[in-house]
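Is adenine placement plausible here? Inputs below.
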Amino acid sequence: MRLDVVTIFPDYFAPLQLSLVGKAIDKGIIEVAVHDLRDWTHDRHNTVDDTPYGGGAGMVMKPEPWGEALDALEAADDRPMTIVVPTPAGRPFTQALAYELAARQRLVFACGRYEGIDQRVIDHCAERYELVEVSLGDYVLNGGEVAALAVTEAVVRLLPGVVGNPESLVEESHSPEHPLLEYPNYTKPPVWRGREVPEILFSGHHANVAKWRLEQATERTRARRPDLLDEA
Ligand code: ADE
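Reply from A.M.:
I modeled the complex. C-alpha cells:
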C-alpha cells in the first residue's frame, strides 16, 4: 500500500517513522510520502488560504494548490487513489471503515486547516477518484493532521505482516468478529498494592477463563457502550 499525505505541516508526520508503522515502512509493506502543500503555490508568500465568499469568520484553503497537488500525485503512480479528507463533517471513523481502507492500494490524505478546503476540491475528488470524508468523532481539531495519523495507524496495523500475531486482531475491541469492548488484562505480580488478580486466571482451565472473559467484556460493554450491544 502507498500512503501520500498533503499538509501544510509535514513535521506532524515524523512519528510515522516510529513503532509498528515505521517497521511496516522498513519491511516494505507500505510506502509513505509526505508533501508540503505550499510546494504547489507560486506567490512570494506561498499562500494556501483566502477569505470565504459570503463572509464569515476564518479562512478557507484555496483550490489551486490542491488541484496541482492532486494532479502531481496522480501522475506519480499508477495505483488508483482513494482520497481521505479528515473533517468533523465526515463519516464516523470505525474499525469497519479501517478494514475498508486497508483493502485499498493507495490512500491520499488531504489535510485541511482553517475552516476547511474549498468545496470544489472535494467535488472534484468525488468525481475523479474515490473520496472518503472521515470524522474521528464529535469534536473539533485544528486540522486534519492528527486525524490522518490516527487513521493511518488504525489502517496500517490491519495489513498482513504488520502486527506480529494476527490472532490479536481478532480478539480486540471493535473487531468484526468480536463487537465487544475488551476484557480486563492482568500480569505479574499476583498482588500489587493489595489488589489481587482475579482467582479464575490462575485456574489453568481455558474454557472457564474464556467464559469469564466473555462475561467481563459483555458487562463492560453494557456499562460503557450499550450502543455496541444493540448493533451486535
Ligand atoms: N478535523 C477537525 N476536526 C476533525 C475531526 N473531529 N475528525 C477529523 N478531522 C477533523
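Short version: Residues 183 and 217 are 5 Å apart (CA to CA).
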